[in-house]
Amino acid sequence: MRALKSVGLIALFFPFAPAALAATQSNISNCQYDASGVDSFTDIFTCGTVSGSLRTLYYSTHNAYFSKGFNQDTASYGGSVKYETAPVYGFRAGVSAIFLRGIDHPDEAHTISDIGDNQTNVGEAYLSWQQDDFKITAGDQRINIPFVGDYDWRITPILFRGVDANYGDSTNYLHATKVWRYKPWGDDQFLDTTAYTDIDERTNGMWAIGGGRGTQWDNKKLTGQLWYQEYADYSRVVYGESHLQWQDTLFQPDVAVQFIRGTSLGKALAGEVNSTSYGAQLALTFTPALNWKLGYDHIAASPNSWGNGSLVVPYAHNSSSGPYFAQPFFTSTQDLGSGNAYMTNLNYVLNENLSLGTQYSFMDLKPSAQSASINQSEYLVYFTWAFSGVLKGLSLTDFAGVQTSPLYDSHFWQNRLSLQYDF
């Protein structure tokens, strides 16, 4: 909850911030209720909560994705504002508004599509029910499971229309998800297609079931998760990951392994899928503020399948490398081919305001059996400055880097600068 003067100052940066936000939050801050929820019909609405994220994003690419001389520079603003009712007998309803507007966009070819088109629509619209450790949500919502997630760094989020249920907490849980439609970054409509925009075929979405388990073993914590997913007419995916962390040892080492297996399903719209990946990761905590991570993945070659053995995950294509241990920031490991992938990341939290880091990844991957390795290197630096005091909730973030690849004989530069207010 933010004070009215804070929202007023934020409006200097975001003139589109809702003026009534602070007053609404002030009213609901006085509401109190027990586990059964509020007592009256009026309180369902007056004791609800308002949250959101308002952003201005400048997104620039040069020699975009190794196309020499092809540059894109796009600035836009927008975000989402959500209202969720107070609980009554475990039920809540939520709805959000999403919007996006451009700032002096260039021609269509040089405008980045993810933040290029204006958007004005309802985003989330759901009904949830929670009893103790069990929660189920139906409708248009954010979902966060392996390869099906928000990846919310642009302006409007990726959303999904479906049913999502979880029993347990973040470590020990059973989870089930069914998705029928999704809303990508660059659209304000829920679509019956996928992120494979070159495939103009309808799909019935996907479903997944998974579980996680954690146990304490002397000064070590062992955790694991296992998932099975089916993407209609695309692929079946089995994903497993396990971590062993020494909690009272120098640097608190966290050693992890992962396994990812994908095979064809139904019409196999993206092509034959025969993908097998193995990964390992080491993470060290030198101080509470300084963390280092080293990741590796091997993707087995399969010359007659999509991407020479790459993984087909229709809602994460060209969006994120998801749970892969070794991943670049500007492109996606599962889209680049088979072979070996490496990544190292160093992050330092200087104080409550400034966090900064650097990352290097190397993709020794072949997109086809006949191709040479792309030998793609990515050099990335980033920082976040979180304001405090009356500007608490406002942050400035920048990701800047370059990718090189002898296969494409080009350097690909990208910069993402955002001013963001979360409330």
Structural summary, described in words:
With 423 residues, the protein is mainly β. Mean pLDDT is 92; it is low at 1-27. It has an 18-stranded antiparallel beta barrel. A hairpin with a 7-residue loop joins strand 10 (235-246) and strand 11. The relative contact order is 0.11. Helix content is 6%, strand content 50%. The longest helix is centred in the first third of the chain and has 10 residues, at 4-13. It has helices at residues 4-13, 21-28, 41-46, and strands spanning 49-62, 72-84, 91-102, 119-131, 134-141, 159-168, 173-183, 206-217, 220-231, 235-246, 254-264, 274-287, 290-299, 338-349, 354-366, 376-386, 394-405, 410-422.
Quick gist of this model?
By secondary structure, the chain is mainly beta. It is built from three helices and 18 strands.
Tally the helices: what do you get? 3
Mean pLDDT across the residues is: 92
Radius of gyration: 22 Å
What are the segments in which pLDDT stays under 50 over at least 5 consecutive residues? Answer: 1-27
What is the string of SSEs from the N terminus onward? HHHEEEEEEEEEEEEEEEEEE
**Which quaternary structure do these chains form?**
single chain
**Strand residue content:** over 45%
Structural class designation: mainly beta
Total strands: the figure is 18
Question: Level of helix content?
Answer: under 10%
Overall form? globular
Main pleated-sheet profile: 18 strands, antiparallel, barrel
Q: What's the N-to-C terminus distance?
A: 7 Å
List the helices and strands and how they pair.
Layout: H1 4-13, H2 21-28, H3 41-46, E1 49-62, E2 72-84, E3 91-102, E4 119-131, E5 134-141, E6 159-168, E7 173-183, E8 206-217, E9 220-231, E10 235-246, E11 254-264, E12 274-287, E13 290-299, E14 338-349, E15 354-366, E16 376-386, E17 394-405, E18 410-422
Antiparallel strand pairs: 1-2, 1-18, 2-3, 3-4, 4-5, 5-6, 6-7, 7-8, 8-9, 9-10, 10-11, 11-12, 12-13, 13-14, 14-15, 15-16, 16-17, 17-18
